[in-house]
Design a protein that fits this description.
About 10% of the residues lie in helices and about 45% in strands. By secondary structure, it is mainly beta. The strands form 3 sheets. Strands 1, 2, 3, 4, 5, 7 and 10 form a 7-stranded antiparallel β-sheet that branches.
């Protein structure tokens, strides 16, 4: 049988060590020898002896925070021996390696999978109010391990070495040590009073030393868990990402 479908770039890639790696830009492969955490429902295929265990938001404390804040990651523990393939609506996938002392604030909607050695918590985004892509709260990851995040399109990584402003619906993640706030981008004037708008009323501001990852797409405010809530209300370091 012959087809371009069977070209080398589409064949399963084998690694030398277990762990998370990219099969291609939209598929994550986990070579499993132990366990890792993944977004519920993200598995698209697996081989071997693999078990899936629903964890909610990763513990009773995080479950309660998710219910109170509308933010979090619906998780499952994947364990056993074999290969597991993950994806999320054909979004682009990027790997970030955290080392001791690193901390990453990330919209829960963009978390695909991470090593079980990492710790995460749901924390308030200081100074950003409801302007955060995930509302008032984001997931903050720390420790040593690898995390896979998703973006809609190829992102840009901004080095925060001067005042930096980002559309809150396009901000994916940033160095957790950065100071965040909000900035009125649209100038008040007669046009504003007459109902005209640029569509850029507010932006998130970042200060300090670190980076911000911005995707070329604007997500509805509210993050994964809060998006439905937001719609109802309206209706009434560092790995392959930097290479």
């Amino acid at each position: 049988m012959r087809s371009e479908l069977f070209s080398a770039e589409n064949l399963e890639k084998e690694g030398q060590q277990p762990g998370l790696r990219l099969q291609n830009s939209k598929l994550l492969k986990a070579e499993l020898n132990g366990d890792f955490m993944a977004r519920t429902g993200s598995m698209v295929a697996y081989q071997g002896q693999v078990q899936f265990e629903a964890l909610g938001s990763g513990g009773i404390g995080k479950f309660l925070k998710q219910k109170l804040t509308g933010e979090g990651v619906p998780l499952m523990r994947v364990s056993g021996h074999g290969d597991v393939f993950l994806a999320e609506n054909a979004a682009d996938i990027h790997l970030i390696d955290l080392e001791q002392g690193d901390a990453l604030s990330i919209n829960g909607a963009n978390v695909l999978a991470f090593d079980s050695s990492l710790q995460y918590d749901i924390k308030m985004v200081q100074g950003a109010g409801m302007l955060s892509n995930a509302g008032l709260f984001n997931c903050v990851f720390s420790g040593y391990g690898r995390i896979a995040v998703t973006t809609k399109g190829t992102p840009v990584v901004l080095n925060v070495d001067q005042p930096t402003y980002v559309d809150p619906q396009a901000a994916i993640c940033w160095s957790a040590n950065l100071q965040t706030g909000y900035h009125r981008a649209e100038q008040l004037g007669m046009g504003t009073l007459m109902g005209r708008t640029t569509g850029e009323r507010f932006t998130m501001s970042f200060a300090g030393q670190g980076f911000v990852v911005v995707q070329p797409s604007e997500e509805p405010p509210g993050g994964f868990a809060g998006a439905a809530q937001g719609q109802q209300q309206q209706g009434g370091v560092l790995g392959g990402l930097f290479s």
